[in-house]
Amino acid sequence: MLIPVILSGGAGTRLWPVSREGRPKPFMKLADGESLLLKTYLRAAHVGYGGELVTVTNRDYFFMSRDELARARLCDGHQGVFLLEPVGRNTAPAVAMAALYVANKHGRDAKLLVLAADHLIKNEQSFDKAVTDAVGLAAQDYLVTFGVVPDSPETGFGYIEAGQAIGGGRAVKGFVEKPSEDKAREYLLDDDFLWNSGMFCFKAGVFLDELSAHAPEVLKACEACWSEMREKSSLTDTMFEMPAETFNAVPDISVDYAVMERSARVAVVPVDIGWSDIGSWSAIRDMAEPDDENNRAIGEVIFVDSINSYVQSEDRLVAAVGIDNLLIIDTSDALLVANADRAQDVKQVVARLKAQNHGALKLHPTVTRPWGTYTVLEEGQRFKIKRIEVKPGASLSLQMHHHRSEHWIVVSGMAKVINGNQEIFVATNESTYIPAGHKHRLENPGIMDLVMIEVQIGEYLGEDDIVRFLDIYGRCQ
Amino acid sequence: MLIPVILSGGAGTRLWPVSREGRPKPFMKLADGESLLLKTYLRAAHVGYGGELVTVTNRDYFFMSRDELARARLCDGHQGVFLLEPVGRNTAPAVAMAALYVANKHGRDAKLLVLAADHLIKNEQSFDKAVTDAVGLAAQDYLVTFGVVPDSPETGFGYIEAGQAIGGGRAVKGFVEKPSEDKAREYLLDDDFLWNSGMFCFKAGVFLDELSAHAPEVLKACEACWSEMREKSSLTDTMFEMPAETFNAVPDISVDYAVMERSARVAVVPVDIGWSDIGSWSAIRDMAEPDDENNRAIGEVIFVDSINSYVQSEDRLVAAVGIDNLLIIDTSDALLVANADRAQDVKQVVARLKAQNHGALKLHPTVTRPWGTYTVLEEGQRFKIKRIEVKPGASLSLQMHHHRSEHWIVVSGMAKVINGNQEIFVATNESTYIPAGHKHRLENPGIMDLVMIEVQIGEYLGEDDIVRFLDIYGRCQ
After folding, report:
1. I want to staple A299 with a disulfide (CB 3.0 to 4.6 A). Which of A9, A295, A313, B298 is the partner?
2. Which ranges of B259-381 would DSSP assign to H, the alpha helix?
3. How many residue pairs from chains A and B have C-beta atoms closer than 8 A?
4. Could you give all domains of chain A from N- to C-terminal order, each with its CATH number?
5. pLDDT value of position B25
6. Any idea where the MannoseP isomerase/GMP-like beta-helix domain is (chains A, B) (predicted)?
7. Does residue A328 sit in helix, strand or coil?
């Protein structure tokens, strides 16, 4: 039994403005239209043989994560299980909660394959082979890490120093902190040094034992969470919400510090699998095909006498004149222009936005909700226009606004609308009007997406002018 | 009698993406919200003392030009007169038509002050003084040019070589083509060399006589236009449309080549008036105040370790990381990122767009119509959303669409709507529905702007699905 456990917590501040709090790095779509999380689900389903996929993520990302799992269209028998954190507490508590779940449901000998939700692996075949090797070592009670064979003198990663061969892998001599550039160049020529990829494989019981030995306070705090959670849930549930107060008290520590660097039972499987942590826009750039001037473009771009540059545009025309070595990332509400050598410093923009509590830090113009999405198309004086997309079978809460009226025009699909005391169907090319103070509810009763244009009119148009009476997603409080 | 004549014909391709065919350089708004044309009207009204302002422009820009004149809110007594060209034929025919109009209406001794619609003059007082000098020379039957005292070794302008002093100016020894950089550096140190600004002052009759002497074929062709035009109009009209076929036959030649460089009666008034032809984005940049890192920003911009750069953004957040010497011009549907040393080459982008017959060459998302504006907010599958603004008292044509229905929602003001056989009023926060095949008309009967959201739904949503039945702006054919 091998249960893939996907840790989905990366903020990806270096990938602003595409990665933001409201839709962070795991949900970022690559040029092929697939998100990193979706790719991770596909990869995990391919190697897992327990039929279960466990995701540990913040509860804010539950519905979005479930949507990505649905988009992966895995064949029957793959059951998604979600362990939801109220706050981030680094990787040790996340892995510990997953290990407690797996040990309790499937037994202490069931193995976990811990994967990050925001990495890319190009060579899936080599990855499958490496997982097989890791499972073999895990069966011998090793805590197995995956060590990526370096192809550049990377100073942004920790390294693993490998020792003698054991089974399909090697023993671990030690872990090395992010090195200097000189050291990184040395390591590049030395077969014993590997990048610490943050992927692991081990039996649930072995991990919990080692955690108990080396970081007992973490295990104890996680067990308290587990007990409290179990009081409200059954092991057959697919969604577990960690109790906020108890989980808040769990130490913030990485699995490397808590266990891997301290345990004597660690092994490493060296891998050459086309791995990237997609750490910055430079990594995204490198995935696109360069032209003769070493320019790369996603979207409609005109290069005039420009070289070595990357432009990514969602829906606008971009013209570049006489530029060199730039990254230009264009989204509908924010634009980034950066020297490619300074890709790491994009996080400074996010820090600045954070200091200003700026809206562009958190939300995209398109906001994802459990029932679908809405996109603000324009805000003017006393009016706001949204495009609302509701998934088949989904419905918004029964709600009321004090300060705004809403005009709804269905442009695609069919809407079922409760408007005051009436229940009506609104078909494509029909409209309805919701006066301020009227209780209303929007539902998509059909089997295709409902697309609707909403024109709000009123003195105050903030999202907080909403009274929810009934909500299938538990958002009434 | 001094009649300002404003030549409004510049395409301003170096100022793409803000300047485009649909709204070219004279209509470009500066940071203070005023267009170059509006500033020219204010300047002209200040010095003119005939009560008339003559604009020579393409007929496509008539309504937009008239709007700018209205925005200038000139005090009573200033009458706008528009001479409309079907095609551009350079400056000699434009000035000749204006001279024919002025000579016929106000007599051959009335003076013209010829100004470009897309230049900027910072020092209005010095300009007023220079005009007084020029008028004095024009009274002595000189063709007066304004020669700008150079403050840089400019290779993009022609130069005027000044001779002995006469009246408030100097005689002209000759005109010099755009010089080499070495020559331009020499001229900068020599008081006799001045930039040819393209502004002039002369009596209508003197100009026509000199045109007859030096370019009789131009005068003859223009006189043919004038006669044909007069058959359909009265001298008290304020809008004269040049006959297309006859005007097409007028030679394409500049006023410098046709008259100034050939005439013996040319004088120059040297001026130091803070003049700029706003020839590229560098000129726009120079008008903004630099910060400590020599960055300049219009709009919301975050600079991280960036220097010497200019960012202009309409409504999006722009972040710049580690950049130097860039121009970043952000509009709602197109973005320009250019090395500041290559500002002249922006015209190459326009040339490329022209070769592709690209939409971003011609129109802004906001399109100006005689009755107001419309802005496309979103185009989706089978739907399109527009914000429509109708000026007080204005109305759209009585029209019909075969392939689309329209939902209209009034968000501000009052609409009078003809919908099939009905005539109704639609107030703020009310809506109406125009089915495909229904004749309809939209009017703003009020005294404040009407703002409306239109949601179009149908198989085909092109602007050419329109049958016009009645149009007060003469667009039925």
Report:
1. A313
2. 281-287, 346-356, 359-362
3. 175
4. 2-276 (3.90.550.10), 281-353 (no CATH), 366-470 (2.60.120.10)
5. 95
6. 299-353
7. strand
Residue pair A68/A41 in contact by the 8 Å Cβ criterion: yes
Question: How long is chain A?
Answer: 477
DSSP secondary structure letter of residue A477: -
Q: How far apart are CA A47 and CA A30, in angstroms?
A: 22
State the best of A295, A335, A408 to mutate against chain B, taking most chain B CBs within 10 Å.
A335
Instruction: Please report the ipTM that was assigned to this predicted complex.
Output: 0.83
Residues in chain B within 8 Å Cβ distance of A353: 302
| Residue A405 with chain B: CB contacts under 8 Å | 429
Minimal CA–CA distance to A225: which of A209, A210, A238, A241? A241
Nearest to B317 among A320, A333, A451 (CB): A333
> For residues B268 and A50, which has the higher predicted lDDT (pLDDT)?
B268
CB pair distance less than 8 Å for B321 and A328: no
- Which of A358, A377, A380 has its CB closest to that of B385? A377
Q: What are phi and psi of B362, to 5 degrees?
A: -100, -55
How would you classify the pairing of strands A143-148 and A266-271? Answer: parallel
For residues A432-463, one letter each, b for 16 or more C-beta atoms within 10 angstroms of the residue's C-beta and e for the rest, the string is bebebebbbbbbbeeeeebbbbbbbbbeebee
If 0-12 CB within 10 Å is exposed, 13-18 middle and 19+ buried, where does residue A395 land?
Answer: buried
Inter-chain touch A431–B431, beta carbons under 8 Å:
yes
Q: What are phi and psi of A476, to 5 degrees?
A: -75, -30
- Residue A469 bridge partners (DSSP): none
Q: Would you tell me the crossing angle of helices B36-47 and B62-71 to the nearest 10 degrees?
A: 60
Residue numbers in A near B336 (CB within 8 A): 318-321
Instruction: Determine the distance from the C-alpha atom of residue A459 to the mean position of all C-alpha atoms in its chain, rounded to a whole number.
Output: 37
Gap between the Cα atoms of A54 and A6, Å rounded: 6
Residues of chain B with pLDDT under 70: 76-77, 361, 363, 474-477
User: pLDDT tens digit string along B27-57?
Assistant: 999 989 999 999 999 999 988 777 899 999 9
Nearest neighbour of B346 by CB, restricted to A321, A348, A358: A321
Q: Contact, B276 vs B151, CB < 8 A?
A: no
CA distance A70 to chain B (A): 24
Contact partners, residue A454, CB within 8 Å, separation at least 6? A374, A385, A386, A387, A388, A406, A407, A408, A409
**A429 → chain B, closest CA residue:** B457
pLDDT of residue A472: 73
pLDDT at site B314:
86
Element (H or E) spanning A304, and its range?
strand A301-304
Could you give the 3-state DSSP secondary structure of residue B136? helix
